[in-house]
Amino acid sequence: QMHLKESGGGSVQSGDSLTLSCTTSGTTDKYTLAWFRVPPGKKREGIADREGVAALRHDGLTKYADSVKGRFTISRDNIKDTLYLQMSGLQPEDTALYYCAEDPAWRAYCPLNPQAYIYWGQGTQVNVSA
């Protein structure tokens, strides 16, 4: 049974950096892990409003949303079974509830579509003030 748990959220100012962590257990060896976010005013229930931020396939392939390219980095410590999202140059529009997710099946690409992911954490809140 897959279990994901995010941590590291908080309140920062514009231009600051923050690193989110997601501990994973039960990960398969052909996983794709990803970070999603739900901005204020969007629905947190269900997955329809979850925006793909970054994805990491088991072999190191990554994909980023255009809005975070060059500012965010996704990585995983395989020994610690922990997924990270290093965020720099944070802006108020990055304010959101951030989720990590896993697709345990092998994929030929790194999807940023929430429908591709089966397992989800509970989320960690990031607030960026101007």
Structural class: mainly beta
* CA-atom Rg in angstroms: 13 Å
Query: What would you call the shape?
Result: globular
Q: Helical amount among residues, as a percent range?
A: under 10%
What do the pLDDT scores average to? 94
Strand content: over 45%
The rounded distance between the terminal residues' Cα atoms is 40 Å
Number of helices: 0
Major sheet, described briefly? 7 strands, mixed
Secondary structure: number of strands: 11
Task: Catalogue the unreliable spans.
Answer: none
Order of helices and strands: EEEEEEEEEEE
Can you give me a brief rundown of this structure?
This protein is an all-beta fold. It has strands at 3-7, 10-13, 18-25, 32-38, 51-57, 62-64, 72-77, 82-87, 96-103, 119-120, 124-129. Strands 2, 4, 5, 6, 9, 10 and 11 form a seven-stranded mixed beta sheet that branches.
Give a structural overview.
This protein has 130 residues and is mainly beta. The chain contains no helices and eleven strands. It has strands at residues 3-7, 10-13, 18-25, 32-38, 51-57, 62-64, 72-77, 82-87, 96-103, 119-120, 124-129. The strands form two sheets. Strands 2, 4, 5, 6, 9, 10 and 11 form a seven-stranded mixed beta sheet that branches. A hairpin with a 4-residue loop joins strand 5 (51-57) and strand 6 (62-64).
List keywords for this structure.
4-stranded antiparallel sheet; 0% helix; globular; 130 residues; 7-stranded mixed sheet; mainly beta
Write the layout of secondary structure elements.
Blueprint: E1 3-7, E2 10-13, E3 18-25, E4 32-38, E5 51-57, E6 62-64, E7 72-77, E8 82-87, E9 96-103, E10 119-120, E11 124-129
